[in-house]
Amino acid sequence: MAHQTTPSSQKALMMELKSLQEQPVEGFRITLVEEADLYNWEVAIFGPPNTLYEGGYFKAHIKFPVDYPYSPPTFRFLTKMWHPNIYENGDVCISILHPPVDDPQSGELPSERWNPTQNVRTILLSVISLLNEPNTFSPANVDASVMFRKWRDSKGKDKEYAEIIRKQVISTAAEAERDGVKVPTTLAEYCVQTRVPSQDSSSDLLYDDLYDDDMEEEDEDEDESDMESVDSIPAHLSRCGNEMIF
């Protein structure tokens, strides 16, 4: 029987999944949508303390292409999100997820777009940064962008934007309860990194099947270099339309 070669994208995704389960990014829970499908991940994002999203439990799907990491995945929120850089269908518009092509019309630099050195960690940290620091110059949701600018420029006196976000946060409590998840509400709780245990022993078999005998584990130093704090990651610019909002 001929030996079937495992696609390199599956190997890359398994290595990332294993790394994220053993060394999680603060504020996230990651699982596979289906145990045998490495190309579809479910992400639960905890709203960072001391922000409008504090106490929130926001679910999203990350869908990876077969040629990952050479092409970017897509990131779609399943939870209703009111945000300048998130479309009504939940799709996140962020430069890091845009294909690495030279497109002067977009206003983006090639260096701001996806490249194969990016990974799930950098995506997650970029999304958190985007939640806290929206880009309003070319928004995916124009109404949310205008509302956000009013809230920001009035230093919180115009409360419409903040009230919508808080209502969405409150509405996520039922989902967290269904999933048996305690959402962190303090900085100390938020920064705790909890290793996600394997659901069953078959997960170990999946790891074994995806690694060739001559394939070695990645250096731990490389993993640690990716474990940057949310505060140290600048917001990636997000330009999703041609309209400039002033």
TrEMBL record:
The keyword Cytoplasm does not apply. Residues 199-234 are annotated as: Disordered. Keywords: ATP-binding, Nucleotide-binding, Phosphoprotein, Transferase, Ubl conjugation pathway. Gene3D superfamilies: Ubiquitin Conjugating Enzyme (3.10.110.10). It comes from the Eukaryota. Residues 206-229 have a biased composition (Acidic residues). It is an enzyme of class 2 (transferase). GO terms for biological process: protein polyubiquitination; ubiquitin-dependent protein catabolic process. InterPro entries: Ub_conjugating_enzyme, UBC, UBQ-conjugating_AS, UBQ-conjugating_enzyme/RWD. Residues 8-174 form the UBC core domain. Its EC number is 2.3.2.23. One of its GO terms (molecular function) is ATP binding. The active site is at C93. It catalyses: S-ubiquitinyl-[E1 ubiquitin-activating enzyme]-L-cysteine + [E2 ubiquitin-conjugating enzyme]-L-cysteine = [E1 ubiquitin-activating enzyme]-L-cysteine + S-ubiquitinyl-[E2 ubiquitin-conjugating enzyme]-L-cysteine. Pathway: Protein modification; protein ubiquitination. Belongs to the ubiquitin-conjugating enzyme family. This is E2 ubiquitin-conjugating enzyme. It comes from Oryzias latipes.
